[in-house]
Amino acid sequence: MTPTSSSPTTPLRVYGSSISYFTGKLEGYLRYKEIPYQLVPMTPLVRAKVGRRTGTPQMPAVELADGRWMTDTTPMIDWFESQHPEPAVLPRDPLQAFASRLVEDYADEWLWRPALHYRWSYRADALLLSRRIVDEMMPRVPVPGALKRFGIRQRQLRRYVRGDGVTAATREAIEGIYLRSLDQLEAIFAERPFLLGARPTLADFGFFASMFRHFGLDPTPAAIMLRRAPAVFAWLARLWNARGSRTHGELVAGIPPDWRPILCEIGGAYLPYLCANAEAWKARQRRFDAEIRGVPYRSLPTSRYRVWCLEKLRAHFEALPGGAREAARCVLEAHGCWEPLWRVDAPASGYDRSGEAPFARGLPVFGG
Ligand SMILES: N[C@@H](CCC(=O)N[C@@H](CS)C(=O)NCC(=O)O)C(=O)O
């Protein structure tokens, strides 16, 4: 059975979209693990059902054959790993596993803003992608197509561009995040097929979300990728085509030196952002300002979900066995990650205290 077949025996339903960031991440993972699934487009009716079943109308959501529902790709991948342990996408080496979780979280959350900015700020991209969204997810909504597409563009601009700190003062820095990511990944793929070696690991799937479904697909960032980082473009196809049963090979030992620029980005920008967000959450502010590497972000939406991200990163560090913990501390210190990982005193999101995710009621990235 092909992964996207619609056979009634398909055990797994993935509710999402063929242009969605996090749906692409999960699809890449399921294909690699050779877990068959059926992709069900998020029409308004499906979206309402997903909201009722998972608590959050976000994509992807997964319905299991036994009727249970899951949301949020990070805990979902953890759960799938517990059910389908081989080939493991989390490296066995605890230091590499921790670094992979850190990079996955960074790629998931910090590349979101540039991805959404390129899609909705550039006219050609916005026109094309609003058409794809409407055709896939709203074909039967009884409103003229042009109006639906206009409505989508306005919504996305309001929420994810203007509403997420993209301004004349931040735009260049936000595009710089994408351009540097290309350079960082290009250097890695000059050495080996995937981020840590001859097969994909969690860090690959983290970067895959933005790179596959936004930067490699939308006209403006895709043209940049083709010119500036063709090895990243090749990696997208390689990962989409990877299968656990045939994509074999070793991982490198330890944290490779070409991961350093990514870790510095995490220490210099992403973790300080998570700290500012966590302080805003504690102060019950709905929006906050933050200066990240001299860039003045204004009126960012406070994200309870990302407070939970910070808590989880800390918990993963604390769960490391003694030797790996020391090694991880050295790596974090060397890249400016240690201090911001612990800067905020008790960042309590209050989310999923009993550890039920991905079966817990979902928490959207914004709001919730
Ligand atoms: N942390 C979640 C994030 C999922 C997410 O934010 N999905 C986006 C689309 S890629 C979404 O559904 N956004 C809601 C909306 O725009 O209404 C995950 O990893 O699955």
Keywords:
368 residues, alpha+beta, four-stranded mixed beta sheet, two-stranded antiparallel ribbon, 15 helices, 6 strands, 55% helix, globular, disordered N terminus, binds glutathione
Shape: globular
Molecules bound to protein: glutathione
SSE sequence, one letter per element: EHEHEEHHHHHHHHHHEEHHH
Mean pLDDT: 96
Low-confidence stretches: 1-8
Reading side by side through the largest sheet, how are the strands ordered? 2-1-3-4
Continuous helix count: 15
Largest sheet: 4 strands, mixed
Distance between the termini: 38 Å
The residue fraction in helices comes out at: 55-70%
Q: What is the strand tally?
A: 6
C-alpha Rg, in Å? 20 Å
What class, by secondary structure content? alpha+beta
Structure description:
- 55% of the residues lie in helices and 7% in strands.
- The chain is of the alpha+beta class.
- It has a domain of 197 residues.
- The protein has a 4-stranded mixed sheet, with helices on both faces. Strands 5-6 form a two-stranded antiparallel sheet.
- Helix 1 packs across helix 9, helix 6 packs across helix 7 and helix 8 crosses helix 11.
- It is globular.
- The protein starts with 12 loop residues before the first strand and ends in a 26-residue tail after the last helix.
- The N terminus is likely disordered.
- The site of glutathione (GSH) has 9 residues, from helix 1 and helix 3.
